[in-house]
Specification:
This protein has about 475 residues and is mostly helical. The chain has helices spanning about 10, 15-20, 25-30, 35-50, 50-55, 55-65, 70-90, 100-105, 110-140, 145-160, 165-195, 220-235, 240-245, 250-280, 295-300, 305-340, 355-360, 365-375, 380-415, 425-440, 450-480; strands at about 1-5, 5. The chain has a two-stranded antiparallel ribbon.
């Protein structure tokens, strides 16, 4: 079978190629293995908990009301399947390039190329969305300052942090992300105290979940449509796969980090959304993306300085997520360079092991955010966030397909020896694939996401054309040398 010029049977022998990956200098000889388990865990949490929860929840609540809680539960199940799928492959092949390399190994060259290009593109847009979110948060305090001023300042700081040696970067991101985690835990504790009437406050109770049109004001349709955005809140669990190339003892720390991350993400998202919706009527949280609903809730309950503190925290949350996304994009471009798909210069490393040119190219999303903040400040966030949604659906689908092929290649006996394992395979992967396809189709009915999938199709066609031209050019070069 030939797909985009690649003959799968002749070109690939997955097991033979897979056994060489971890030792290949092309993938692993120069990046420093310096990330510890606690850094890896907090980087993944830091990348996953960002504007999807703190700012994007404004849109999901408007779509489903309190029923958005169910949307987060369903999304958590899908994310869990994807996370375990990539963790299995990462502990077997802890290499730079991660799921792009796995797709190339277990599917075909085109998918390995396409998923990495798409992921880099999506993360570049995500960086733009995150720094735009920071500008929106700052406008709560400084409404007279143009958004682009904050975008420029934040961008410069993030570039400086990503220029650090990976061990130092990991430590910086660890403390950056831990602020976010501590605050979410504090928000949940304080919220539960208000709900149950601990201290001087009257008990709020859970009546807000049912008294404003019911728990499902828009029915199950609203729950389903909200999935298109709640699912993106968990997009970041794949970070563990990408960081595997720079992790200390990946076969040990990846399983531990993955189990810890998934449990925390599910608890943080579901509990925080439930608390927030219980504390304030869902239909009173505003209609536009002008600030975080978490800040609005604390502003209305009357706790002194709580809203200001929460706004500071959501700023650090967006910064943490943007910081991690910039790291991911840089490493993805590095991987593409080492495979010869982009200029070799993007694969060059500085003395501290950082691919500086790839880092510079990865800042394109920040440049886009600056332009949008100047010319379309009211729509900048959804424009960037919406385009990235379809790309991440594609990335997760490729990860699941690669994992199905990976499981077939290694066999049941070897699968049972893996330090982390997805149970009852292949049924979870198949269910997740069907759900992702159905959710992608439903974006046509979500305001702000209607053009996500249609705009992604030309992108796939364009990178496919580039891939074929690249293959033809390399074939002609080899023939000329012969």
């Amino acid at each position: 079978m030939t797909w985009f010029g690649v003959n799968n049977k002749a070109k690939f022998a997955p097991m033979r190629m897979a056994s060489k990956l971890a030792a290949s200098p092309e993938y692993s000889s120069e990046l420093n293995r310096a990330l510890t388990q606690r850094q890896l865990t907090m980087m993944t949490i830091g990348g996953a908990i960002g504007v999807g929860l703190f700012l994007g929840s404004t849109v999901t609540i408007r779509l489903a009301g309190p029923g958005v809680i169910l949307s987060y539960v369903i999304s958590a199940i899908i994310a869990l399947i994807v996370a375990y799928s990539i963790a299995e492959m990462a502990v077997t092949h802890p290499v730079a390039g991660s799921f792009g390399v796995y797709a190339q190994t277990y599917l075909n060259e085109w998918s390995g190329f396409a998923v990495r290009v798409t992921y880099a593109f999506v993360q570049i847009l995500a960086i733009g969305a995150e720094v735009t979110a920071v500008a929106i948060y700052f406008s709560v305090w400084f409404p007279g300052v143009p958004q682009w001023v904050w975008v420029v300042g934040v961008s410069i700081g993030l570039i400086a942090v990503n220029g650090l040696r990976v061990g130092n970067f990991g430590e910086f991101e660890y403390w950056f992300a831990i602020i976010k985690v501590i605050t979410i835990v504090a928000f949940i504790i304080v919220g539960l105290g208000l709900i149950f009437g601990v201290g001087p406050w009257r008990a709020i109770g859970f009546s807000n979940l049912t008294s404003h049109g019911g728990f499902l004001p828009y029915g199950l349709k609203g729950v389903w449509l909200a999935l298109s955005l709640t699912l993106t809140s968990y997009m970041g669990v794949e970070i563990i796969g990408i960081t595997a190339g720079e992790a200390l003892q990946p076969e040990k720390i990846i399983p531990r980090a993955m189990r810890s991350v998934i449990l925390r993400l599910i608890l943080f998202y579901i509990l925080s959304i439930t608390v927030m919706l219980s504390m304030n009527p869902w239909d009173k949280m505003g209609n536009g993306i002008t600030g975080s609903p978490f800040v609005l809730v604390f502003a209305k309950v009357g706790i002194p300085y709580a809203a200001g503190i929460m706004n500071l925290v959501v700023i650090t949350a967006a910064l943490s997520s943007a910081n991690t996304n910039l790291y991911l994009t840089t490493r993805t471009l590095f991987s593409l360079s080492r495979d010869g798909y982009v200029p070799k210069a993007l694969g060059s490393l500085g003395r501290n092991g950082v691919p500086y040119l790839a880092l510079i190219v990865s800042t394109a999303g920040m440049a886009a955010a600056i332009l949008l903040a100047i010319f379309a400040p009211g729509r900048a966030f959804l424009l960037l966030y919406g385009v990235a949604v379809a790309g991440m659906f594609f990335v997760w689908i490729i990860i699941l397909l690669a994992h199905l092929s990976f499981r077939r290649s290694i066999g049941q006996a070897r699968a049972e020896q893996l330090p982390i394992r997805l149970p009852i395979s292949p049924w979870p992967q198949i269910a997740a694939l069907v759900a992702l396809a159905a959710i992608a189709i439903s974006t046509f009915s979500v305001e702000g996401l209607k053009y996500s999938v249609p705009s992604f199709i030309p992108f796939v066609l364009a990178i496919s054309a580039f891939y074929r031209a690249h293959k033809h050019r390399n074939s002609s070069r080899r023939e000329g040398q012969a």
